[in-house]
Amino acid sequence: MTTLLEIAGQTDVGQNRHDNQDTYLAGPLWTDHSVLLAVIDGVGGYAGGAEAAALARESIGQYMATPTGDTLTMLREAVVFANNQIVQQRQQNPALARMCCVLTVVVADAQLGRLYYVHVGDTRLYRFRQGQLEKITHDHSLVGVREDANQLTEREAMRHPRRNEILRDVGSMPHRVDDPDFLESGESDFEPGDVLLLCSDGLTDMLTRAQLVEVLGRPMPVAEQIEALIQAANEAGGHDNITVVLGRYSAPEGAEIAPALPIDDSRSATASIRVGTQGLMQSEATLAAEALPEQPPKRRWGALVLVVLGVLAGVLWWQLSPSEPTPRPQPVRADSARTPKPFTTIDSTRTP
Q: Where is the PPM-type phosphatase domain (predicted)?
């Protein structure tokens, strides 16, 4: 009895762009129970964003065509390979000297119950499970770092004028697999009923988490869910290209599912990137804090009003309450009076 992986992808130019610099991957990989998913967003503002995204897509697909070892290591190597291919093209073509892209790439294996991911930039990977949406990747952008640190609300981040300023990209400079300041990567469990959502910022700049959950919870094929998400993003303004990839894992009743494999932290590739990513995230947080200083705290007018009202109530109660007669002082008995101390004069003259 075979498991079922339902996958689909779609990209849309949006409402305000004349060209589409996004692309994606959504197809089987190696076996009938594993898939390769990716969303790749060409960086706007520079010539060649679409070319960089297309070259990354081609390079990753080519590198991942044949399994050669550890899946996560292969995925990391594939993104580095794509990065250096873009760098080479930049050097050969002056017109494309600043082209680059951002991306999120996933290998999902239903038989192993695992997903593996590599991420650079402000595209995103979510996992939808039992009505809950979990954001797995971190945004490598000035605003995204602040949002992930709960220093900006979702709405504030979506409306921020600097939300598209990224801190990492694929293609602007040569990289190696073990560079600590480049790739965010990891692996997690992948269970029956899970839905993986990969998307460009053209979706998440337009739709809130609650809106994503509402669509992902609808009982419909993933291709129709993608159409609904893109339509909603366009109706909200469609300010950028919109790309969505979905992968749903469902198993026929009675199918045997292998238990999730534990993550082996002893593997050098995975362990090194975790250490490096943590260090870089701290530096990115510092950079974001310097570039986007926190707003001054709001004044606590509510507490001040309560204090004033309390004082006024106390004064009013004192004025309206009936006055009590002041008790007379009791006479002091002579035998209980304290003996006064003699008055002492301080001689301020100095002794010669």
A: 7-249
pTM: 0.75
Asked if residue 183 lies in contact with residue 76, where contact means CB atoms within 8 angstroms, the answer is yes
Domain chopping of the chain, boundaries: 4-13+20-291
Q: CB neighbours of 197 closer than 8 A, spacing ≥ 6?
A: 124, 125, 126, 127, 128, 133, 212, 216, 244, 245, 246
pLDDT digits (tens, 9 = 90+) for 172-206: 999 999 998 899 999 999 999 999 999 999 999 99
Q: Are 79 and 273 in contact (CB under 8 A)?
A: no
Q: Given this structure, which CATH class describes domain 4-13+20-291?
A: alpha beta
